[in-house]
Design goal:
The chain has twelve helices and twelve strands. The chain is an alpha+beta fold and 500 residues long. It folds into three domains: 119 residues, Beta-Lactamase (2-Layer Sandwich), CATH 3.30.450; 91 residues, Signal transduction histidine kinase, dimerisation/phosphotransfer (DHp) domain (Helix Hairpins), CATH 1.10.287; 158 residues, Heat Shock Protein 90, CATH 3.30.565.10. The N terminus is likely disordered.
């Protein structure tokens, strides 16, 4: 696949359509809000500009004439003059004469045919609020339609001892119909123009977005394909700075994990091959010895003396023990490597444990005339908190190696030192040491020293390391080839003070 291969048309169409739909929805919402606010703005402006129209009417018409006749009836002639003025000046208003309780006494309305459900009494609370604060936007009742609220102007008056109100609606029904018609016309034109402009903008923005997104996406696709085709080192450069940083970073993290898993699988496969080869090699020797001497002993045609039979049986017994030790080591390491062992931690004395291990090997040490020393106070317990059985195995393996490689009349020194809340265990021998080239591999499985005379599986120190790691500690080896000798050190938590 080419690095700059185009994205699918389906993706481009979907993205462009999404932009179009989004902009259209935003456009419709924007237009609706705009017209709503414009209508409210116009109404509030109209009411503010005509707030004193009721006062002007009272000053102009009621100065020389009263809205009521002497008999208390409404002065119809006066309001006919008002209607004549409305016809000549402003056909959008409606004038109502209200009594002190808000009942409609008379109205000057050009067309009563548009009335739906007329009301006889107008709510005076908006009128009082308006009279007290003409700057505020207030809606009042429409006497011709009980369900509608409209902008108005109002003023109170008193004539012949009677109180009342002039209540003027500033937007008649005819006026609202004209506004609605114009609104629909302008809305239709604006919507059409908006759709055209929106479509063009969405196409431009859509294609621009596709270009910007595809630029980063194609880089990701390129490296994904390289990884798919076997280039496991392929990574997206500057992933955090990419337009699709989350996707790029996730791919790099995933690729690292997969590469590590692949390397681990390869390591396991190599381990299996190495395991089979080492087991075949290390188990063949004792098995060959056992089989050879067993066949000799069972051969009827061969005459074997009693002394030779006893020697052959001892050799078979020794080879059997060697074979058993090799199998035990392999089983123990596999359990440790699979982390199937659970620690059984207890408090115990390192002094007593080392004493018991030295006693079990004293015969071997005496035969080789190796001196074993304990460079610490024999009266102190050196209590530690660990798995006693496994730590016994650690010290035993190291001590066994020390006895194996220390020459006759050599020396092995055990040291115990408490620093802070840790006990440092040291086992040092005067053997040939380990050269620099091999020091990094002594804890690896299957490693055996060049001077190893036992031809074992090389799992002793690997087992030691696994046990120490289970205790969340580290083990170190120090060896100077010039001065000879080798020293192993590891730490365990000291609990002497806590127990005391």
């Amino acid at each position: 696949m080419s690095k700059f291969q185009s994205l699918s048309n389906k993706f481009v169409i979907k993205l462009s359509f999404s932009f179009l739909l989004t902009i259209l929805v935003i456009g419709v919402i924007y237009i609706s809000i705009t017209f709503f606010l414009l209508d409210k703005f116009y109404s509030q402006t109209t009411q503010r500009l005509n707030a004193d129209i009721a006062n002007h009417l009272i000053d102009e018409k009621f100065k020389n004439s009263s809205p009521f006749l002497e008999n208390g009836s409404v002065n119809i002639q006066l309001f006919d003059d008002v209607m004549h003025d409305m016809m000549a000046v402003n056909r959008a208003i409606e004038v109502y004469l209200l009594d002190e309780n808000g009942f409609v006494l008379h109205s000057v309305v050009l067309d009563h045919a548009n009335a739906t459900e007329e009301i006889k009494q107008v709510d005076l609370r908006p009128i009082h609020k308006f009279i007290n604060n003409k700057e505020e936007y207030i809606l009042g009742d429409d006497p011709k339609n009980i369900l509608e609220k409209k902008i108005f102007s109002a003023a109170s008056f008193e004539s012949y001892g009677k109180e009342g109100y002039i209540y003027i609606l500033l937007a008649s029904h005819d006026f609202e119909q004209v506004c609605s018609s114009l609104f629909k016309s302008y809305f239709s034109k604006l919507t059409t123009n908006t759709i055209i402009i929106t479509t063009l903008l969405s196409l431009i923005i859509g294609w621009l977005s596709v270009f910007l997104i595809s630029k980063s996406l194609l880089v990701i696709i390129h490296h994904v394909n390289k990884f798919k085709n076997g280039d496991f080192k392929s990574r997206i450069p500057n992933a955090s700075a990419s337009s699709l940083s989350i996707l790029a970073t996730t791919f790099n993290t995933m690729a690292d994990t997969i590469s590590e898993n692949i390397e681990e699988i390869k390591s396991v496969n190599d381990f299996k091959k190495e395991l089979i080869a080492n087991i075949s090699h290390d188990l063949r020797t004792p098995m060959t010895v056992i089989r050879g001497y067993a066949e000799t002993l069972t051969e009827k045609e061969i005459v074997i003396s009693d002394d030779n039979k006893e020697e052959f049986l001892k050799i078979i017994e020794k080879s059997t023990l060697t074979l058993s030790n090799l199998v035990d080591q392999l089983y123990e390491y596999s359990n440790l490597d699979a982390k199937q062992l659970k620690l059984n931690k207890t408090v115990f004395s390192l002094n007593k444990l080392i004493h018991d291990i030295i006693r079990s090997y004293c015969v071997i040490a005496m035969r080789k005339k190796i001196k074993v020393e304990r460079a610490y106070s024999l009266n102190e317990d050196f209590l530690v908190y660990a798995d006693k059985v496994l730590i016994h195995r650690v010290i035993q393996n190291i001590f066994d190696n020390a006895l194996k490689f220390t020459p006759k009349k050599g020396i092995i020194i055990f040291s115990l030192n408490v620093i802070n809340r840790n006990t440092i265990i040291s086992i040092k021998d005067s053997g040939p040491g380990i050269n620099q080239d091999n020091q990094n591999f002594i804890f690896d499985r299957w490693y055996t020293a060049e001077t190893d005379q036992n031809n074992g599986l090389g799992l002793g120190l690997a087992i030691v390391k696994k046990i120490i790691e289970l205790h969340e500690a580290n083990i170190y080896m120090y060896s100077d080839e010039k001065n000879k000798g080798c020293e192993f050190k590891f730490t365990l938590p000291n609990v002497t003070g806590l127990v005391n």
